[in-house]
Amino acid sequence: MRGEELAFEVGGSMVVVTVREFDPSKDTEGVEAVERICEVGPSGKLSLFTDLHGDPICRVRNSPTFLMLVAEIGQETVGMIRGCIKIVTCGKKLQRHRKNTTEPASKQVPVYTKLAYILGLRVSPHHRRMGIGLKLVQRLEEWFRENGAEYAYMATEKDNVASVKLFTDKCGYSKFRTPSILVNPVFAHSLTPSSNVTIIQLPPNDAELLYRTKFATTEFFPRDVDSVLNNHLTLGTFLAVPLGSYSPDTWPGSPGFLADPPPSWGLLSVWNCKDVFTLQVMGASRVKKVIAKTTRLLDRAFPWLRLPSIPNIFQPFGFHFLYGLGGEGPRAQKMVRALCAFAHNLAKDSGCQVVATEVSGQEPLRCAIPHWKMLSCEEDLWCIKRLGEDYSDGAVGDWTKSPPGISIFVDPREF
Questions:
Q1: Ranges for the N-acetyltransferase domain (predicted)?
Q2: What CATH topology corresponds to 4-179+379-414?
């Protein structure tokens, strides 16, 4: 992508801003400097700093197609933006089958669309209100259109007024979905899953078949889910079933399971964000740090008490992301609780400090997911925009105007 120059008048003189593709050989240090100054925030207030481990495109590089742009004045990096493109489910339609076949007379099948995602928009505080953020979004949208994307969306905190105004007022995006980010601390003690539940780790091909059969019509389901499940950052897909129904030794494979499923079951996959980036809470008072440390010391000394200790989130910490969470049956919530306890212990053994997931606010299994309100975001905000006129979603209509479904599939490559 060619660079583009934009001129502004500042203090009576003209300033030229260049927007171009990120060059890892010369832009990494400047990008990291902007990340630090944008995320640490005002002194004395809690904020979240992200350490990208020297890889500014780490949060998009696992996507099928991605791009990062930087804005610079002279030799100084003053802003950046990242984007990626994939094919996802935007709705479903009824497909009828011919007679004299073993298939059901009709079934729901997914309708796919090419979707772009914007993340990591940053502009240095010293260079805001110059139109740099707007220009970065517009240039990225040009690339989306060139690559056939039909929609673009972004996620932000609902109280991030500046970001919401930029996208909704100036870029033509509309508020679309309000999922919940649920975060649970990893304690110094292990959790004990229910003794009436068996947890089985599925081979990737079994996991793929189960997801495509049960979740392909879920909004935002990635058509290349096999790439996600086979990625080295996916630590495994785990199925919870009632004790006595199946075991690792008697597992019949997904075809056998789907032909004769137990009355209730739960499913989730685990993505290792720790090897991609780490987080750190900044601006906490000494009192808060001392209280948190005290809970950890007590938890380590008396693990049998099962104290809800506060992990050390004031130093760089890693986390696991739970995705593809779902289940069926009257005891599905119990299955999900068992899976979350199992995932907690997996994170503990890996040295992570928290476990996170993101689900629709209407998700029926949401109440079974343990989380701390003080660490979670009850209403994340997703905004969406239609990019062109020729679409593959005729059965759905304009996706931007569709009502929310009960569930969403959150791709871990974009978290």
A1: 17-192
A2: Aminopeptidase (3.40.630)
